[in-house]
Amino acid sequence: EGSLDLRRMAQIARGKPSDHCGEVVLLTNADFDIDKTIFATVSSTLTRLFIRDKIGVTPFWSDKAERQIREAFSKVPMAPKYDKAIIEFMNQKCDFAVEHADGSFMDHLRFCYEYSHQHFSQRSPRVLLLHSIMGVGTNFFPMEPSKISELQSLLTKEEFEHVAIFPTMLRLLQSGVLMDKLSDMPPGRLSKLKSFQCRRVIDNESMTVDAEIFWDHLNYQLMHLLDFLPTSSWKLHADDAFLKNFRDLHAILVNNKQLRCTVDYDVKEGSSSTEGQPRTLVSLIRGVIPSSVAINAARNALKKFSRQIGHSFEHKLEFE
Q1: By three-state DSSP, how is residue 88 classified?
Q2: What are φ and ψ of residue 209, in 5° steps?
Q3: What are phi and psi of 202, to 5 degrees?
Q4: What does the pLDDT read at residue 270?
Q5: Bridge partner residues of 316 (DSSP)
Q6: Which of 38, 125, 204, 283 is the most buried (most CB within 10 A)?
Q7: Residue 79 vs residues 10, 70, 82, 117, 314: alpha-carbon distances, Å
Q8: Nearest-5° angle of CA 96, CA 117, CA 114?
Q9: What is the pTM of this model?
Q10: Short-list 131, 103, 99, CA closest to 115
Q11: What is the 3-state secondary structure (H, E, C) of 271-303?
Q12: What is the per-residue pLDDT for 273?
């Protein structure tokens, strides 16, 4: 069923991400193998280097921080157990046996599910439990296209719409194709949004969702990004694509008054201290190459993944 580490516990308990500088020391994990994770198919040498530097570490928390986080998390109401039929489908009809960014795939899914239950209670947490089942940012597919109708039978109409477009929205947003477009649009324009059309990653089929689903979905995407943020010293990670995506999407939702989940993010938070940071090749070259180089490499990787499988980035925002 997955487990929660201290960083994830802290986010669920606080309803926000935190820069844990001064509370944790990160040491390079010599046994880390990127080819055993969902990022195995990333081909860019630079992107692989930055991913390995970020997730190939082991955190060592101070006793005080661990005590405070565990105490806060103990007061969080327990999330409901997963639906039995859905778990049986995931275990028997799908393949989640690959490592995620930080721990097992189920660790990641449990965090997303429990954060959503606690901080987006007006919507179904099952969306984030199943968000990866029809594909991820890389070309890893836990479920075969032939199982789509069976999955659909287990969900409500709204849940299935979110799950089906999740990999597409992830790629459109994190590649910058949709994120930059939404960032540049005035709030008045987006308030007249009627529907959104895009193509599913798993089979390139066209899907259309209404504006209400669209805005809810961006909130799901924001909560999902929480699990990819740097553990500490955010101001040293200007080249972190996930941190940029999180900040940009949070700003879009706030500026359009559509932040519906609880993510109490302070844009001014973040330390520039090197305390607790591992000394690696990436830490040495950060001051040499512009942050835009690493960010653009990550964006281009997502576009390349879709080209490799014939997935179209074609999409349409329809307004009233």
Answers
A1: helix
A2: -125, 155
A3: -65, -30
A4: 87
A5: 197
A6: 125
A7: 15, 16, 9, 7, 37
A8: 45
A9: 0.91
A10: 131
A11: CCCCCCCCCCHHHHHCCCCCHHHHHHHHHHHHH
A12: 86
CA distance 47 to 305: 13
| pLDDT at residue number 274 | 81
Which residue intervals of the chain are DSSP H helices? 6-14, 45-55, 63-74, 84-93, 105-119, 126-129, 148-153, 157-174, 179-184, 187-190, 211-225, 241-255, 281-285, 291-308
- In angstroms, the first-to-last Cα distance of the chain is 44
Query: DSSP per residue over 12-72, as a string?
Result: HHHTS----TTTEEEEE-TT--GGGBTTTT---HHHHHHHHHHHSEEEEE-HHHHHHHHHH
121: Cβ contacts below 8 Å, ≥ 6 apart: none
Sign of the C-alpha dihedral computed for residues 253, 258, 261 and 266 taken in this order: positive
What tokens does 136 get? 């991820």
Q: How far apart are CA 214 and CA 222, in angstroms?
A: 13
User: How does pLDDT run across 168-179, given as a tens digit for each residue?
Assistant: 999 999 999 999
Instruction: Judge contact between 260 and 215, C-beta under 8 A.
Output: yes
C-alpha distances out from residue 172 to 94, 153, 158, 180, 303, Å? 25, 27, 20, 10, 9
Going from the C-alpha of 118 to that of each of 107, 212, 263, the distances in angstroms are: 17, 21, 11
* Tally of residues, the chain: 320
Q: How many CB atoms lie within 10 A of CB 35?
A: 10
pLDDT of residue 178: 98
Structure tokens at 158: 């709204």
Query: Which parts of the chain have pLDDT scores under 70?
Result: 97-103, 280-288
Tell how strand 316-319 and strand 24-28 pair up: unpaired
Q: Which of 121, 126, 207, 143 is nearest to 172 (CA)?
A: 207
Of 234, 289, 216, 274, the C-alpha closest to 49 is 289
**What are 105-159's pLDDT values in tens digits?**
889 999 999 999 999 999 999 999 999 999 999 898 999 999 999 999 999 999 9
